[in-house]
Write a sequence for this structure.
């Protein structure tokens, strides 16, 4: 599978977290694993990871999804054919930092978990019901564990 991954941050996120680009190799590796395993027919994938602040992601959430609440991630599947996918994953680094503290994790691991989470949505996973959320969290742990071994 051919993966083209881009990693960017808004000026606000870049100022608060200047070393976000140090994670590119890990993010590329985990994204490739998720897509290869969960979407085995995909031969070409473009994934854009965009880091933002809480307020920036809130504005996107309001404007695009009409949701007036903070979130840690928003995933947009721009294209999905039998063999190709193009996805944008927006991540709040503020929310990721808070999640990492709450779950006694580090920021890098939480960002990887969020990337996995977003790509699992692209693969058809849902987190709308308790059982679906549990299934999705199990897959997140699987891919995160695979990355840290």
């Amino acid at each position: 599978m051919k993966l083209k991954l881009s990693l960017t941050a808004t000026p606000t996120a870049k100022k608060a977290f200047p070393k976000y680009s140090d994670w590119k190799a890990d993010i590329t590796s985990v994204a490739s694993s998720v897509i290869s395993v969960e979407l085995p027919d995909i031969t070409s994938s473009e994934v854009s990871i965009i880091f933002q602040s809480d307020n920036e992601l809130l504005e996107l959430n309001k404007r695009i999804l009409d949701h007036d609440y903070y979130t840690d991630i928003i995933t947009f599947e721009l294209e999905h054919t039998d063999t190709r996918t193009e996805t944008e994953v927006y991540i709040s680094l503020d929310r990721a930092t808070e999640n990492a503290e709450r779950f006694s994790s580090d920021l890098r691991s939480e960002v990887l978990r969020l990337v996995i989470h977003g790509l699992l949505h692209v693969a058809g996973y849902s987190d709308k019901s308790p059982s679906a959320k549990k299934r999705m969290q199990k897959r997140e742990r699987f891919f995160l564990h695979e990355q840290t071994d």
Notes: Residues 2-148 form a domain with the Collagenase (Catalytic Domain) fold (CATH 3.40.390.30).
